């Protein structure tokens, strides 16, 4: 199952029961997200959950978040590697004159939260315009490529 290009937000209250201790990792593997954000549950005054007993210790929440994020990094990297050689419609959003690279995002990347497409181009590109970019390299979060005609 692939969730290409989708964003899913899951809000949950962790309860100290063994049955609930590890489902997030299994769920992340099963859904096979392209991108995911993972946040630790935090108590908020005025909510019913604030008064619940048996709150999960902060150290445990941090560890669980880290485990899920490490798993997701592997998934994202494998998915990004499969895009090498592909041509993606990419919105060019900025130019770094020091590094001489453009930064944009493909249709699969949400602004400000997902990865970028880092673009090398010998010709000047117009910002806020779409270009076809052939992906030549990938890492966990970002793609790298060149504009094709």
CATH topology assignment of the largest domain: Transcription Regulator spoIIAA
The CATH class of the largest domain, by name, is Alpha Beta
Oligomeric state of the chains in view: single chain
Radius of gyration: 19 Å
In DSSP terms (H or I, runs of 4 or more residues), the helix count works out at 2
Helical content (DSSP H or I, runs of 4+): 10-25%
Shape: elongated
Q: Reading side by side through the largest sheet, how are the strands ordered?
A: 1-2-3-5-4
Proportion in β-strands? 15-25%
Largest sheet entry: 5 strands, mixed, barrel
Unreliable stretches covering 5 or more consecutive residues:
1-21
The run of helices and strands is HHEEEEE
- Architecture of the largest domain, CATH level 2? 2-Layer Sandwich
Number of strands: 5
Q: How confident overall, as mean pLDDT?
A: 83
Write the layout of secondary structure elements.
Blueprint: H1 23-31, H2 58-81, E1 87-96, E2 101-106, E3 117-120, E4 129-138, E5 143-147
Parallel strand pairs: 3-5
Antiparallel strand pairs: 1-2, 1-4, 2-3, 4-5
Helix pairs in contact: 1-2
Overview features:
149 residues; 2 domains; OB fold (Dihydrolipoamide Acetyltransferase, E2P); Transcription Regulator spoIIAA; disordered N terminus; elongated; five-stranded mixed beta barrel; alpha+beta
Structural account:
With 149 residues, the protein is an alpha+beta fold. The protein folds into two domains: 18-81, Transcription Regulator spoIIAA (2-Layer Sandwich), CATH 3.30.750; 87-147, Beta Barrel (OB fold (Dihydrolipoamide Acetyltransferase, E2P)). Helices cover 22% and strands 23% of the residues. Strands 1-2-3-5-4 form a five-stranded mixed beta barrel. A hairpin with a 4-residue loop joins β1 (87-96) and β2. α1 packs parallel to α2. The protein starts with 22 loop residues before the first helix and ends with a strand. Residues 1-21 have low confidence and may be disordered.
